[in-house]
């Protein structure tokens, strides 16, 4: 079962539902990008150059993408720049320095809600526009551990599970502290929490099996003028 769930959740597999959903989400970002005057500067918080390749986003002569990560990543094209830093502290950049701040499945990994608020404030400060995607806390299959309702279980039960079983993309954890650290590395967001972070943004639902799998938080713009969820 674990292997089946991994195959369906593997973004690198062309036939996986996860890859198809990611491509569909990316169309929302492209609809925003296509309305902006060129050249365009994009700050990708927590991304990789490989992600943009997977989205067939190669014709970038008039787009520069800054890949921002805790650890430096390799970039091989002239229109990519790789820098290191903490997404909660973007003081190296001026207000509205970037045309778009892009972040895909990252804000749930930067810490507790207060840390996520810091990241959101920095996104709003340095970007003229933004596109942020994050999984929905209430979706029944937790997307990292690939275990039903994992995020809602008591901490003691989650620790027991990750210490005794290989869940999702993770090996069994060696001790209690490793288990606690791994669990703390993911803080899925609820709709009301996202609203506090981005009160003036569009909140678009991504649906799977009739349920909200994740949220796209997008700057209000004529290209994204759809009803708020």
> What class would the helix/strand composition place it in?
alpha/beta
pLDDT < 50 stretches: 223-229
Can you tell me the CATH class of the largest domain?
Alpha Beta
Q: And the CATH topology of the largest domain? A: Rossmann fold
Task: Walk me through what this model shows.
By secondary structure, this protein is of the alpha/beta class. The chain has two domains: about 1-140 and about 190-220, Vaccinia Virus protein VP39 (Rossmann fold, 3-Layer(aba) Sandwich); about 145-185, no CATH class. Helices cover about 30% and strands about 20% of the residues. The chain contains seven helices and seven strands, in the order H-H-E-H-E-E-E-H-E-H-H-H-E-E. It has helices at about 1-10, 15-35, 50-55, 115-125, 155-165, 175-185, 190-195; strands at about 40-45, 65-70, 80-85, 100-105, 125-135, 200-210, 210-220. A seven-stranded mixed β-sheet has the order 3-2-1-4-5-7-6, with helices on both faces. Strand 4 (about 100-105), helix 4 and strand 5 form a beta-alpha-beta unit. Helix 5 packs across helix 6. The protein is globular, with a radius of gyration of 18 Å. The model is unreliable at about 225-229 (pLDDT under 50).
């Amino acid at each position: 079962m674990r292997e089946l769930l991994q195959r369906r959740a593997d973004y690198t597999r062309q036939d996986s539902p996860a890859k198809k959903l990611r491509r569909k989400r990316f169309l929302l970002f492209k609809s925003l990008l296509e309305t902006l005057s060129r050249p365009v500067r994009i700050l990708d918080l927590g991304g990789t150059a490989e992600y943009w390749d997977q989205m067939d986003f190669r014709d970038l002569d008039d787009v520069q993408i800054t890949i921002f990560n805790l650890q430096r990543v390799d970039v091989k094209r002239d229109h990519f720049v790789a820098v290191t830093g903490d997404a909660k502290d973007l003081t190296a950049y001026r207000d509205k320095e970037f045309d778009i701040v892009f972040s895909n499945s990252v804000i749930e990994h930067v810490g507790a809600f207060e840390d996520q608020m810091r990241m959101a404030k920095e996104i709003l400060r340095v970007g003229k526009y933004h596109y942020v995607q994050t999984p929905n806390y209430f979706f029944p299959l937790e997307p990292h551990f690939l275990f039903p309702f994992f995020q809602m279980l008591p901490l003691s039960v989650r620790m027991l599970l990750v210490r005794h079983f290989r869940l999702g993309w993770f090996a069994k954890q060696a001790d209690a502290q490793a288990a606690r650290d791994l669990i703390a590395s993911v803080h899925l967001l609820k709709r009301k929490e996202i609203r506090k972070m981005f009160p003036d943004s569009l909140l678009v639902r991504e649906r799977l099996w009739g349920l909200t799998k994740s949220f796209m938080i997008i700057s209000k713009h004529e290209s994204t003028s759809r009803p708020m969820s």
